[in-house]
Amino acid sequence: MKEFFKQTVKSFKPLDIIIWSVSVAAILASFFGAKSRDYITLAASLIGATMLIFLAKGNVIGEFLTVVFAVFYGIVSFATRYYGEMITYLGMSALAAVVAIVAWIRHPYNGNHTEVKVNTIKRKEWLLLVALSAVITVAFYFILRAFGNANLVTSTISVLTSFAASYLALRRSEYYALAYAFNDIVLIVLWSFATAQSLQYLPMVVCFVVFLVNDIYGFVNWRRNKRRQANAEKEATSAEERSDGNTE
After folding, report:
1. How many CB atoms lie within 10 A of CB 79?
2. What digits encode the pLDDT tens for the residues 221-241?
3. For the packed helices 61-79 and 39-56, what is the interaxial angle rounded to 10 degrees?
4. Is the whole-model pTM more than 0.90?
5. Which phi and psi (to 5°) does residue 172 adopt?
6. Rounded-to-integer distance, Cα 109 and Cα 117, Å
7. Taking CA 216 as the corner, what is the angle to CA 194 and CA 116, rounded to the nearest 5 degrees?
8. At 248, is the secondary structure helix, strand, or coil?
9. What confidence score (pLDDT) does residue 88 get?
């Protein structure tokens, strides 16, 4: 465990630290600028920003923080009558993150548990994801309508993007970050509605703007990792083939 944390610290580059620092500063500035006293919203935002930088690195700590973020975000969502967000994060994202923790630990890249091995989703699985997303979206529309969810259509779209993102993160696909980026855009709109009623929710708008930047960075980073991992495997295979040829 000690070695894991040492490797985690070493894996962070100056750009990672800059992105995290600017994200935290933006959230704090919006919180104190709006003179908010909703410290649960602040905690959710700060945990979320920290979670995303670890996810962008492909580090399993990000999935642990996803569970913690889901709890805080669920509380904030319940208070705002965004029941879809509460159900999605507590009943789906948190559970998916728990399963993802196991999957990521079982699939480290080259034995390095600070970086997960990026997976490639095949066509059949993409079709399955589309089918499941359609069923989930339709079902949640009627569930949320029955609960009297605020901003029903926007919340339903958020469920769709959250489900896709959680599934792709579980399957270790770089496209999880793009799905979350779309979800961030939806949530910026959703929390803007709440902020129009009370400035105490301004940090949540800033939070998801920060999330959008981080998720775009995460997608770029995972694509880079995927290419690097694939090239390393090709080189290892070529070296092994040369070694076998020399032996013969």
Report:
1. 15
2. 999 999 999 998 888 777 766
3. 150
4. no
5. 60, 40
6. 4
7. 115
8. coil
9. 82
Q: Quick one: DSSP state of residue 118?
A: P
Q: Summarize pLDDT for 75-112 with one digit per residue, the tens.
A: 988 888 888 778 888 888 899 999 999 999 999 998 88
DSSP tally for the chain: helices H, then strands E: 10, 2
One-letter amino acid of 205: V
Give the separation between CA 156 and CA 136, rounded to whole angstroms: 9
54 Cβ contact list (under 8 Å, min separation 6): 61, 62, 65
Q: Report the distance separating Cα 89 and Cα 93, nearest Å.
A: 5
